[in-house]
Amino acid sequence: MLIPFTALLSGLVFGLGLILSGMTDPAKVLSFLDVAGLWDPSLMFVMLGAISIGFFAFRAAKRRGRTLLSTPVHLPGTRTVDLRLILGSLLFGMGWGLVGICPGPGLVLAASGHTGGIVFMVAMLLGMFIFDRLEKHRQSDSNVNYRQPGNIERK
Q1: Tens-digit pLDDT profile for residues 53-81
Q2: Of 8, 41, 107, 140, which one's alpha carbon is 20 to 30 angstroms from that of 22?
Q3: Does the predicted TM-score (pTM) go above 0.85?
């Protein structure tokens, strides 16, 4: 029972931080991203603070190997920068730049009944569903191609 409660509390603190920092205000985010216009650099300090805390927190988590509640730490297993990562990052950045919402603030906005947040969350979930289907199709195709007679290694 402690783990779900801690997860809920962490999510609430994270959401409150997003609200207090202005990250849930799409207009503020868009003005931060508009470096050629009326640029608002205030979110840069929010990001620098988050990156600084995250840097030390992830290093400590990697060293410990377990969370403070003794559950395993799950960190990315690869550091490879490939085409899929680059394309996903570009797609994320374009979406963020177009509407000024990313997943965390989108969830906070949707939970508060904000129409833009709800539309964003529906679009994000639809995108995740499409990616999941494409990924399963890609994996099944690679398994089929791998098993073709010409691809079997002979000794």
Answers
A1: 999 998 998 898 888 888 998 888 888 99
A2: 8
A3: no
Domain ranges of the chain: 1-75, 80-148
Q: Of 107, 102, 101, nearest to 12 (Cα)?
A: 107
**Structure tokens of 56?**
């030390």
Per-residue confidence band for 149, with pLDDT thresholds at 50, 70 and 90: low
Instruction: Write down the mean pLDDT value for the chain.
Output: 88
Question: What is the rounded distance in angstroms from the CA atom of residue 33 to the CA atom of residue 38?
Answer: 9
Distance CA 155, CA 152 (A): 10
Can you tell me the distance from the alpha carbon of 16 to that of 20, in angstroms, rounded to the nearest whole number? 6
The sign one gets for the Cα dihedral 102, 103, 108, 110 is positive
- Would you tell me how many other CB atoms lie within 10 Å of the CB of residue 24? 22
